[in-house]
Design goal:
Elements lengths: L2 H21 L6 H8 L2 H15 L3 H14 L1
């Protein structure tokens, strides 16, 4: 599986998690939405570390990650 595919899986699972949190709190499926959404965090962490090991310029990588963190 490529990193691109993993990013999409992480994004979709995060959307499912947030959808369950905001719209289905009183539903019996609430926990299912949240469990599916928990997949996104380990995937994003893996992709962050993978990017760290494969970058050619660590300073630029940390600047990009810092900008992303501040904008988020």
């Amino acid at each position: 599986m490529t990193n691109y595919q993993l990013k999409w899986i992480a994004m979709i699972s995060m959307v499912i998690d947030h959808t369950g949190y905001f719209f289905f709190q009183a539903s019996p499926y609430y926990e299912l939405f949240r469990i599916i959404g928990r997949i996104s965090f380990p995937l994003y962490c893996y992709l962050l570390v993978e990017g760290f090991f494969h970058t050619s310029n660590l300073k630029k990588y940390w600047i990009r990650m810092g900008i992303l963190a501040i904008s988020s």
